[in-house]
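Why does residue order matter? Because the sequence determines the fold. Keep that principle in mind as you read this record.
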Amino acid sequence: MDHARLSQYRRWRVSRLAPAIELDLADADLDNADPALLRRLEAAREAMAALEAGAIANPDEGRQVGHYWLRDPERAPDPSITAAVRAMWAQVDDIADRVAKGELAASDGQPFRHVLLVGIGGSALGPQLVADALGPRPGARDLFVLDNTDPAGIARALASIPSLAHTLVLVVSKSGSTVETRNGMREVMAAFAAQGLDFARQAIAVTGEGSLLADQARGEGWLEIVPMWDWVGGRTSVTAAVGLLPVALLGHPWRELLAGAAAMDAWTREPARDNPAALLALMWHHLGGGHGQKDMVVLPYRDALVLLSRYLQQLVMESLGKRLDRQGHEVWQGLSVYGNKGSTDQHAYVQQLRDGLANFFALFVRVLTDGPSASGLEVEPEVSSGDCLDGFYLGTREALRERGRASATLVLRELDARTLGATIALFERAVGLYAELIDINAYHQPGVEAGKVAAKAVIARQRRLLAALAEAAAPQTAVALAEALDDEPVAVWQTLRRLAANHPEIRQRGDDPESATFERAAGGSAR
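Structure:
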């Protein structure tokens, strides 16, 4: 018997029975972690406690961050926040109940059979994760999502909905000005109009008070406006109405999701050595040298959790990927996340994980029960498909350990709303604690905002080029147009070639960036 391994497993294992979750860090090399990190994590816990009590989390915007109040509103620092959260819960219940009873129904009096969510980033990833993880319920509505501004993708998604006439639309944007969400909404409105449907009678806005979207929904008489608040960031909004309303409409027990998150919040307020979020942060810091030097590969051994890595990419990378620390020093921090699912990955990139670059650590997710829908079929004597899946997890973990590749395993007894809520909260809290360790602001995203500003500049360039082509007496090169507009020639070339590819009235001759010419047909207008 390997007593040393048993001792290590017991030393680096934390677990709870309600919800039934274990974090197993036996293979995370934490025996070699700097003991001072645990002391620093105690200070990080104190900083997190201050945030929960209402301290300013994002000095850039003077903003609190209180996603933990969404599942325990009595902890909010202001009674008005407590009341607002409870009112949102009541509104979610009311909408779901009225839809179930047919009081909110399609124009022909038939019940809504589908839910279409229009959003992006946290306004889509959280609901997608929960809907996919909990799966369809018999007789319940199904979920479709528009989460990009790709016109082909939008058309494909709309074509996949069996009946727009029986689809309830949720438009989710805190600011109400997110370009991708605005575009998706307008495409959906056009599709409704093409079928003679009244979009407003089938639409609900989830947005901030006073936003452009709220004003539009109120002015057009949409069914409902459900609140979002400045103190809830998009990547932590799944336990706000962003996630709760679609979950409720799909027939899932959304209060169980909240209860699991609240239970994990309580657990992760405990001292660092018994705190799974603190131990995750310890592992990230130790294995990544405090600077994200290794990637986190997320490997859930359950098909229903295939979207977990995508969800964690935003939560972790948007929160931790920062150029500056809170003192203004350049630190170039981050933690890269990728993954798919087991055992699919054993036929994809596990080969490299075992025998290639040691630039990662693995995070396995194991679910002990096969779930109520499992057939229980024996694929060989006394062995089910689920037994094989778990065998692949254990085998892969052992194969990585043999090569000295670190890993951790999150073990869920079963995959249900409560354990899923706890899992989401665990990673939210780990991100917050790790950010304290490396002294960065986890609650702003200047890089995302920079991308939005750059995109607006591209659209402005496109308008200037269309106007210049309309006025030109002869075909123009990209270089000539760039000089005339005092712009950058490669950027002008890239914009012109896309215009020519999509607008018949824009004609391109040649394919050389310097000599190719463009003209706009007389009387032509770009769509």
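The chain has 17 helices and 18 strands.
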